Amino acid sequence: YFKKSNAKFFLISGEKGIGKTTLLQEIKTLAQGLGYLVLEIKPKTNQSSPSLLSQAIKTINEFLQEKYPQKVSALGPDLKQIEANLPKAINFLQKISTLIPLVLLMDDLDLFEPVNLEFPKPEEISNPSFFILATCPGEFLEQKNSLISSFTKEFELEKAYQLNLSHLNFKQTRKFLSAKLPGAKLPPEFCNYVCQYSNGNGLYIREILKFLDNQKILTRVHGNWKVDLDKLSQAEIPPALRILLLEAINKYNPELTRILELASVLEDEFEQEALRFVTDLSFENSFEILQKLLKDQILWAKKDPWGIKIKYSLANLALKKILYERLSHKPNL
Tens digit of pLDDT for each residue in 213-260? Predict the structure, then answer.
């Protein structure tokens, strides 16, 4: 796709935990397999530009010393200039890409200092063997500044490409599973399990399938995928999925986490009044919390058959089980 595409800048957006970094790492492996030298830049809080670029510079130096020692002295001055300036670094990398195809990975654009996000325009990236791939949360693209305006224009002109990772609905998840696991029709119990434990998150689906494969619950026989429904019904929550779900709720303060734990004792579909009953929240506070959890896709909501009352549910069945396990004292309902 790199070689066929006219775009030189690729942006992967989506909510936290949807799998942006994981996808970036898979692209890294694919690019390396195609012969690209891959450089990675991932900012940390209060990190200076020199330390941000230090690993990338070290990688370039090692490559030049090994493959093109005669070029080191000629490129030395340029290499010194880029140590504190990411825009200059990108221009320098174009020069290096005449020697070897290059891919620059930039994870979490929203954490970069604005001064380090002065990208050259796609038409200024002239070398066909140099690409930039980056990630950012969706809300980063909602900002109103010159950088986002530039991105939007380039996306519209197809000089840059954006991939937004979002949750799959039930139909999309089932279609994805059928494409990923060809053969006989997959049991509905299996599709329901994956949907309920992933809530359409591509990263969660990946970890679920890996776990089921490792546990021999999902096996391939003569080219067809088979599911052991007896083992599936008794399977534990995949450990990697448990870690990801805990990371998702650990970002909340203890009070909100406790509210989620209490919500786990309610029916699969509950009303606002039921949540107020187990938490002693006021109407206003419970409404505000429900809206936040809906926005974060921790909860789902739908109207009852008569279209009068709103029913809420935890979006992920595995998360509900984890929250219930954490409750030291179950309230009497």
Answer: 999 999 998 888 999 999 999 999 999 999 999 988 888 999 999 999
Q: Which residues contact 231 (CB under 8 A, 6 or more apart)?
A: 215, 216, 217
* Radius of gyration of the chain measured on its C-alpha atoms: 24
Q: How far is CA 230 from the centre of its chain?
A: 32
3-class DSSP state of 48: coil
Assess contact for 109 and 143: CB atoms under 8 A. no
What single-letter amino acid sits at 245? L
Alpha-helical segments (H) within the chain: 20-33, 49-67, 69-81, 86-96, 146-156, 170-180, 188-198, 202-214, 229-234, 239-250, 254-263, 272-279, 283-295, 317-326
Residue 178, exposed/middle/buried by CB under 10 A (0-12, 13-18, 19+)? middle
Q: Are 314 and 263 in contact (CB under 8 A)?
A: yes
In whole angstroms, what is the distance from residue 139 CA to residue 44 CA? 19
Strand partners, 102: 37, 130
pTM: 0.73
Contact 178, 227 (CB under 8 A): no
